[in-house]
Amino acid sequence: MTPAAASRWPWVLYLAAGAALVVLYYLAPVTAGGFPLRVVLYCFISASAAVAVFVGLTRYRPRPWLPWLLIAASQLVYALADSIFYLLHYAFDLTTYPSLADPFYLAHYPLAVAGIVLLIRRRTPGRGLAGLLDAGTLAVVAAMLSWLYVIGPQTRLGAPLLVEVVSLGYPVMDLALLTVALGLVLGPGARPPAFGLFLGWLAAIMTADTIYVVQQLNGTFQAGNFLDAIWLAGNLALGASALHPTMRAMAEPSPVPDAPLSPFRIAGLSAAALIAPAVLFVQWAGGSVRDVPVVAGTCALLFALTIARLAALVSDQRRLAITDALTGLHTRRFFEAQLPLEIARAGRTGGSVAVLIADVDHFKTINDRHGHPAGDQVLVEISARLRATVRAGEVLARYGGEEFALILPGATAETLPIIAERLRQEVSGTEIPIAAQRRIAVTVSIGTAVYPAHGTTPDDLVSIADRALYAAKAAGRDQVVFGRSPNRLDAAGGGLDYLHLVADEVDALLAGRQRSRAVARLARLLAVESGLDDGAAGIAQLAGRLHDIGKITVPRTVLGRRAGLTDAEWELVRAVPAHGARMVSIVPGHTAVAEVIRQHRERWDGTGYPAGLRGAEIRAEARVVAVCDAWVAMLSDRPHQAALTAEQARAQVLAGRGTQFDPAVVDVFLGLLDSGGLPPDQVAPRQRTAPVSAPNA
């Protein structure tokens, strides 16, 4: 037998041997030749559970070890109580209640409760509030039932004080054990086989204790009855849990801060909340209403716990809505909601606020070379490093895929360079581990802007910081570039010149250098013919020229094909309009052009992307560019399809009328085509030119 296989057998052997001893216990005489055989058998089984826990501690070395040590100590005290109890019953025939064993029985509960509480805290990395509230709900119901049917009747019997104290002690201690047991069950964390055995121990102990108190009060308890089997089975379950190889996993922190609110849990909590009024109704129907204050108090507590649970759920949903799942930082939505508030506060007080945008350099290379899990690890580590530098009141967010944004209230043009440089060095100062024996150097480029020096609106600040970020990239990366005031910007010329070059590079990758220019000319003509004014026609023309620049972010292997794309590759393609819009939006005064580029892949029937807009929700210029882009693309040789004839392309445009395209725009376009109103170069197929290299984005 291999060592790995051998490690799986001790708990099975322990259970089998224990079950055989339990059977022998019931078959054996009380004494054999004056030897207290039953006492020895019972106490041996009870003590074996404590020994098994110590063996499991030594064998598997769980971390932390204190919860299991407290549970082992609890079982030792329990075994001592068993020895005293059964010696008194069998050896000395002392059956008085309470006995000398009862203080030891009661003393083992606090140790067990403490061990389970420590286990819960280890398993729950967050607050674990939801699990605690759910456990509290069930514990309150159990406490009410215990009072109505166990504790309350006992207090009305007029028994001696010592009998009442001990009789109350068992259900109270069982309630404490039940509460922490429910917290363990309803909380998050792994549930290996050892966990199930552990719960079996708790269930057996609480069940047998409750029946024991009832039998003692009504005078029906006898040593050696069926309760001994339940107690012994619980002891064996505890020992087997400690000997099971998965006992280490019971203390592993959960990857989620709390257990989800599943339909099963909702149903269980709802049923529990209805027990109190149901009990009151049953009593009323039977004509013996009693303990009304207890039931009313239970209803009030259940109502309060329900409200607290709803409040916690709302709080968790809000936290999830503004928290990035991978990095734990705020989301872009939260950043965009918070920035106007900080600008307004700075405006009222005459202060300042800075925006900083950082982008991971060569992140695509990291993903391509080391895999997406390594890329995720890089983002998580950079997030941790940036978070370590953020002070109270500052807002750090994951702004995009590999971009991070920071709001710095009170930062000025004088202090911002120091802060930004510290952030850059914090990221690049130490290599990031991506595997057990592999580390890589990672850097970031940073762009910044300050209110009111660089702008007075959120869009102004983000646009200028973004423009500075692109300048940092263009200057060689791994550096900080500070935004410039609008009156010092080179208007739109420099930025637009660069974007025109990008459009040409994309054309070279796809279907020749004239494609985007052809779309631009055709878009202006169609816009005018569709009744748009000169301003809108100009927007359509420029959007047509730049509509595909977002494709510079897509790998060539993806651009060269459309069939057989993976889900991740389709996500890259669907993100093209948003990337292009963002590149154009950093040029002052071109917000409308950027929005047309963002929308030109939307469809008239609402099935387009990125936002699923439909009909008139789509800008008129974008509806024009959509038709022109499709027409020019169909007449061009593309990597995945040869050029169509004008007749074939016309049929395709007509087929998309009312689904892909605006019917009115299609009618105008086809009217121009049929009347010869299109330029001659717009009705003949285009041949692909040799591709040139694209710039490294």
UniProtKB/TrEMBL annotation:
Keyword Transmembrane helix: yes
CDD domains hit by this protein: GGDEF, HDc
UniProt KW keywords: Membrane, Transmembrane, Transmembrane helix
Record's keyword annotation contains Membrane: yes
Domain HD-GYP: 489-685
One GO location term (cellular component): plasma membrane
InterPro entries: Diguanylate_Cyclase (IPR050469), GGDEF_dom (IPR000160), HD/PDEase_dom (IPR003607), HD_GYP_dom (IPR037522), Nucleotide_cyclase (IPR029787), Rev_trsase/Diguanyl_cyclase (IPR043128)
One protein family per Pfam: HD_5
Signal sequence bounds: none
Residue intervals passing through the bilayer: 9-27, 39-57, 69-92, 104-120, 132-150, 170-187, 194-214, 264-286, 292-312
Superkingdom of source: Bacteria
GO function terms (MF aspect): diguanylate cyclase activity
Record GO biological process: cell adhesion involved in single-species biofilm formation; negative regulation of bacterial-type flagellum-dependent cell motility
SUPFAM superfamilies per UniProt: HD-domain/PDEase-like, Nucleotide cyclase
Domain GGDEF: 351-485
Protein name per Swiss-Prot or TrEMBL: Diguanylate cyclase (GGDEF)-like protein
